[in-house]
Amino acid sequence: MLDKNKVIIIGGGIAGKLAARVLSNYYKEIMIIEQDSEVSSPAPRKGAPQGNHIHALLHAGEHGLEELFPGITEKFQSTGAVVINSTKDLAWHHHGVWKLRYDGSYTTTLQTRPHLEWHINQYIIQDKNIIIQYNQSVKKFIYDEVKNRITGIELKNGSVIHADLVVDASGASSFSHRWLTEKGIHIPAEQVKIDLTYVSQIVELPENDDRDWTIKLLYPNPPHEKMAGSISRVEGNRYLVTFIGYHDSITSKEKITSLVELAKKLSKSDIYHELQNANPVTDISIYRVPHITWRKIDKVKNLPEGLLMIGDTICRIDPFFGQGMSIAVVEALALKGILETQSQENIAQKFHQEAAKIIAPIWNMVLTEDFRYPETTGKKPLGLPILQWYAKNVFLLSGKDEKIYDSFIKVMNLKRPMTILMKPRIVFEVLKCSFKKSAE
Ligand SMILES: Cc1cc2nc3c(=O)[nH]c(=O)nc-3n(C[C@H](O)[C@H](O)[C@H](O)COP(=O)(O)OP(=O)(O)OC[C@H]3O[C@@H](n4cnc5c(N)ncnc54)[C@H](O)[C@@H]3O)c2cc1C
Fold first, then answer.
1. In this structure, is residue 286 part of a structural domain?
2. β partners of residue 239
3. Residue 1 has what pLDDT?
4. Residues with Cβ within 6 A of ligand 1?
């Protein structure tokens, strides 16, 4: 336990709650300030509108949550979340080929994001060190200019609360970078324009013995195809249907009254057929992500002390790849590791360095895919054409080579680094696949 008293966490979303869980072992009082009202059931909320859309929990996220909240996976499952065999029950059309289907050794838990967040909250409310103040919005930091230190926050209602550490977990719309800019402190950032649109609805489907999948993903074959569709069973024996379009392929002008019209636009008709007999149980939700941003907080030399950023506040990654929550979990575990093993000085600075190491390879992996569209603008990763060529061949081989698909699953689920896809056998198969294609 540190000889420190109080932490304020701005934002009671996923990253905020994970940070609270970790810091609660080291500080006497953790106060989460959340602008939304408290929810009384697993329901979407205004401050996290993305919660209406598909939220995959990757293996790294699921295993990390279990480490932070022992027993949570069982709680998800006993309240209706759906456990699937990650390779047998997922039907995935990707870059023009179906992935292999087999009874593999990994499982994935399917549920809505509000269900997942609800269960995290059930653990948080049992922690006596953690207080959550709902319906309060943080307006700015309290700053000691002489010491270059954040000493607290000011709420929109004018109240001031002091703390030893302020954690900004307010997500992609965080005010921190604007506030810091006003103080003459610049956070370098990478921003990539993707003009992504999500459209989702929960439906009921009639029983169908021929349905041999629990989640179906119909991904585009870029650059010509820009739209994806997914249908996933979730808690309550319902199905969450989501369409995702890059570069305004689902245009902002379009009034979407039924998902069937969007389903018709996909190159595969599977979701269209399912929707013929679907009974909608929610309204249609739309969410837009014009660009993704990585704020390189680790590069700021004169960052005020006493301020730590985590989750989407640092990096909003392309949600299409389902990594955001899992990145927040891995970051929380990194924070835990720092607190457990290192001197307690400069925690925020050390954490920002670790977070950058977590984000960098994922950011590059995502951009390799986003830049398949010529409309994507921003800083391209080094060696992009080679990365794209290599990744494309790995995707194609995942439709016929179990070992390669297995390695790809581990990378995609953030369990292993990209380098495992560079093993000699995989390089050999990629070259073989590529030469075969060019000979055809
Ligand atoms: C459409 C979409 C689909 C996604 N799909 C996936 C997926 O499949 N898998 C996955 O892992 N991730 C996915 N993500 C990413 C995931 O939603 C985020 O990475 C994750 O929510 C990050 O959590 P966070 O706590 O950093 O931010 P948020 O979840 O945005 O939480 C921020 C919280 O701060 C509160 N807040 C904001 N400002 C203030 C303030 N001034 N004062 C007080 N409170 C404040 C908000 O109300 C909110 O509760 C998706 C994102 C989007 C947009």
1. yes
2. 203, 233
3. 46
4. 10-16, 33-36, 47-48, 50, 53-56, 137-138, 169-171, 173, 198, 287, 289, 311-313, 319, 322-326, 328
Closest ligand 1 atom to residue 51 Cα is 17
* Residues 152-194 pLDDT 10s: 999 999 999 999 999 999 999 999 999 999 999 999 999 999 9
In three-state secondary structure terms, 214 is coil
Q: Does residue 299 contact residue 186 with C-beta atoms inside 8 Å?
A: no
The minimum-distance atom of ligand 1 relative to the CA of 55 is: 8
pTM: 0.97
Structure tokens at 10: 């701005």
Q: Of the residues 37, 325, 363, which should be mutated to test ligand 1's pocket, given the most ligand atoms within 8 Å of the CB?
A: 325
Which among 255, 290, 325 is the end of a domain? 290
Q: How many domains does the chain have?
A: 2
pLDDT for the residue 254: 63
Question: Tell me: the pLDDT tens digits for 12-26?
Answer: 999 999 999 999 999
Cα distance between residue 422 and residue 47, in whole Å = 41
Per-residue pLDDT, averaged over 220-246, amounts to 97
**Residue located via tokens 């080579």:** 401
321 C-alpha vs ligand 1 centroid, how far in Å?
Answer: 15
Which of these, 372, 400, 326, lies nearest to 219 by C-alpha position? 372
- Tell me the residue range of the domain where 250 lies: 191-290
Kindly state whether residues 179 and 195 are assigned to the same domain.
no
